[in-house]
Design brief:
92 residues; mainly beta; five-stranded antiparallel β-sheet; 5 strands
Length: 92
């Protein structure tokens, strides 16, 4: 089992509405079983807002993915725990 794959990304926060919305270390976060392929759980943590080149509001995010051989929801607790630790250590 691989754990804690940290990937930086930029998305519109609105793109995540309706998924497993929560708060981790005071930041908006989204827990998505099978969110990075089958047999994975991805947690996306909002980091900081910015405006893209087209003037659209965006949010920089941190993505933590835990995957293995079982159904994705199996890994969501571990992914959430790792994401909470990451969120607690983000600057600002």
């Amino acid at each position: 089992m691989r754990t804690g794959d940290l990937i930086g990304g930029r998305y519109r926060l609105e793109d995540e509405l309706g998924s497993g919305r929560t708060r981790l270390s005071g930041r908006d976060a989204f827990v998505l079983a099978d969110g990075c392929g089958e047999r994975s759980c991805a947690v996306r943590v909002a980091y900081r807002p910015f405006t893209d080149l087209h003037g659209q509001a965006r949010v920089e995010i941190v993505i933590v993915v835990v995957s293995g051989g079982r159904p994705g929801r199996t890994y969501c607790r571990a992914a959430t725990d790792l994401a909470e630790a990451a969120a607690a250590n983000l600057p600002g």
